[in-house]
Write a structure and sequence with these properties.
Blueprint: H1 36-54, E1 68-73, H2 79-90, E2 94-98, H3 111-119, E3 125-130, H4 135-142, E4 146-152, H5 158-175, E5 192-196, H6 203-214, E6 218-222, E7 239-241, H7 244-247, E8 253-256, H8 272-279, H9 283-286, E9 294-296, H10 309-312, H11 319-343, H12 346-349
Parallel strand pairs: 1-2, 1-3, 3-4, 5-6, 5-8, 6-7, 8-9
This protein binds phosphoric acid mono(formamide)ester.
């Protein structure tokens, strides 16, 4: 039923455009692969501090005061853009929201000239979403500022994977009554995760597989043959399946992917109705899940397609918790990338965020 695949993941075309000084240097976040298990664990640990900040009456700290962050989204977004902008503002950074539709990109200015122009105004970080795989890595070659990949084509969406891992760890910690901050990544060892749906066109799946596998989870990808990548060689997955009903009772996490009609997914399927019949998490299928198994989705959800309306709203669905945690996780990413110069050792400085509401500057 499932076929083991164990070698490391690579994405065609993406590796050639990696900058010589990779995000492993702590300056950029372009791929989950650049973090490794230790880097992911550090982000989760620092996120704990920012979840605590979010519970304060004034959920704001001065950690990045004087820093300037630009969000440059050349593709639609609700969650990621607002989440990053909220995160940066809660860290007291100045946020410039680049509106592609009203920019000189529309007059034919190149992406390179655009980012170099904006960078010349004094920018500490670019947060980039782009339809082309590798675009954030290209920008990282052109500017001194940190670059964060907020989703590039079919390549990666690293902060989505980080917030998903944070949410899983939080749920597992709460289940055994342990404080999240006292819970390490050992909870991922042997955790069974199904990533279901349009794997072929999904940057969320690529980053998710890398992050979960790095932490020790066993990931099975589930999709119709036409929505599987042509080759899964190099994906660090435990298995491949085309039979969702058989996989569901075996997993701790059922992670649904969006059917990406804007990327032409529809042409890979006989019909959306057939997709739902075979791979949608209907109420009948959700009942096959083990007690305690959770349902995740990166959003935006196609209710009635990959997830039934009533399943999306079940207590076992943690979709809105993923969104809430996204702000804290992105605060952690910004803090780790930009907080070093302002505050010395970033991880060490997290303790200083515990000053309570008085630590906020507005
Ligand atoms: N999950 C996600 O990337 O959502 P948005 O496209 O709304 O940012």
């Amino acid at each position: 039923m499932t076929t083991p695949v164990t070698t490391p993941l690579t994405v065609a075309g993406a590796d050639e455009v990696k900058p010589p000084a990779g995000p492993g240097d702590g300056h950029h976040l372009l791929s989950i692969a650049d973090l490794g298990a230790e880097g992911i664990e550090e982000v989760l640990r620092v996120s704990d501090a920012f979840v605590e900040v979010a519970r304060r009456p004034i959920p704001k700290v001065p950690a990045l005061r004087g820093r300037t962050v630009v969000t440059l989204f050349a593709e639609e977004s609700t969650r990621t853009r607002f989440s990053f902008e909220t995160a940066a503002k809660r860290l007291s950074a100045d946020v410039l929201s680049f509106a592609v539709a009203s920019s000189s990109l529309k007059k034919g200015e190149s992406l390179r000239d655009t980012v170099e122009t904006v960078a010349a105004m004094g920018v500490d970080a670019f947060i980039i979403r782009h339809p082309s795989a590798g675009a954030p890595a290209q920008v990282a070659r052109w500017v001194e500022a940190s670059v964060i990949n907020a989703g590039d084509g079919w390549h990666e969406h690293p902060t989505q994977a980080l917030l998903d891992c944070y949410t899983i760890r939080q749920v597992l910690a709460e289940r055994v009554g342990r404080p999240v901050a006292e819970t390490g990544v050992e909870v991922f060892a042997g955790l069974k995760v199904a990533i279901v749906g349009d794997v072929a066109h999904s940057r969320v799946a690529r980053s998710g597989v890398l992050a979960l596998a790095a932490l020790g989870a066993e990931v099975t990808v589930v999709a119709p043959g036409s929505l599987m990548p042509p080759s899964l060689e190099g994906w660090p997955i435990a298995g491949v399946s085309h039979d969702l009903d058989a996989v569901l009772p075996t997993v701790d996490v059922c992670y649904l992917l969006r059917l990406q009609t804007e990327r032409g997914t529809g042409s890979f399927l006989p019909s959306v109705r057939e997709y739902t019949a075979g791979f949608g998490l209907t109420a009948r299928r959700a009942a096959l899940l083990a007690e305690g198994a959770i349902v995740m989705h990166p959003g935006p959800m196609n209710r009635g397609v990959e997830i039934a309306d009533e399943v999306a709203d079940l207590p076992r669905s943690v979709v809105l918790r993923q969104v809430a945690n996204g702000v804290a996780v992105r605060m952690a990413v910004l803090f780790l990338l930009l907080g070093q110069v302002a505050g010395g050792d970033a991880a060490g400085s997290v303790a200083g965020l515990g000053a309570g509401p008085g630590g906020a500057d507005g």
